[in-house]
Inverse folding.
């Protein structure tokens, strides 16, 4: 008798492609859920006076791989000056942010982070309802994916965020804010390659 040939059925290309697409999405959802729960726990642990925070939305573009970003932030302003001059004052604000990167040449990226902002502004008494300022920060970020394109990778999910900006507070009791920021993300060469990425962003912030 002629031996019977056994044929192994291989999974279809479509099924393999679907699995490869589904798995990263699941990891991203788990990552987002974890960071959201962590941020919520930290927020609830703050004193009740800190819950009266400002809300912020931002948008901008990066200098690599045609990446665009939109972000949502919560800003806590203790409403006290670190330094008070006759016209200007220095204040410290705390900002937590989540962001979405539209990455045309790789998987989209989700970002979460914290930044303390030092803001030099005109005092509200001297500036009235029109309060210009400049600001600077060194913060930390976590990103869900490190690849920006086939040619560029950020190497680590942990990144430092260096930011310079300027803007103005306006409106009733200067409760509204518009500004522009230049942000540089890199891992300070903790691991190479460390190409970094720069974003130019505009933002609107509202105090309630």
């Amino acid at each position: 008798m002629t031996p019977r040939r056994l044929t192994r059925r291989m999974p279809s290309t479509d099924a393999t492609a679907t699995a490869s697409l589904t798995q990263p999405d699941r990891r991203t959802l788990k990552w987002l859920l974890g960071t959201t729960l962590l941020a919520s726990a930290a927020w609830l642990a703050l004193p009740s006076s800190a819950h009266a925070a400002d809300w912020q939305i931002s948008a901008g573009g990066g200098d690599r791989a045609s990446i665009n970003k939109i972000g949502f932030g919560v800003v806590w302003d203790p409403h006290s000056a670190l330094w008070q001059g006759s016209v200007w004052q220095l204040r410290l604000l705390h900002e937590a942010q989540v962001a979405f990167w539209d990455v045309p040449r790789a998987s989209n990226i989700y970002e979460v982070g914290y930044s303390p902002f030092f803001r030099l502004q005109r005092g509200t008494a001297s500036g009235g309802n029109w309060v210009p300022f400049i600001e600077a920060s060194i913060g930390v970020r976590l990103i869900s994916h490190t690849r920006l394109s086939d040619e560029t990778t950020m190497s680590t999910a942990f990144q430092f965020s260096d930011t310079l900006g300027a803007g103005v507070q306006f409106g009733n009791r200067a409760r509204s804010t518009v500004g522009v920021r230049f942000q540089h993300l890199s891992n300070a060469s903790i691991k190479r390659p460390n190409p970094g990425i720069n974003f130019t962003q505009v933002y609107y912030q509202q105090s309630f």
About this structure: The beta strands are 54-62, 68-76, 81-84, 88-102, 109-122, 130-143, 158-170, 176-186, 197-206. The chain has one domain: 53-206. The chain has two helices and nine strands. Helices lie at 13-45, 124-127.
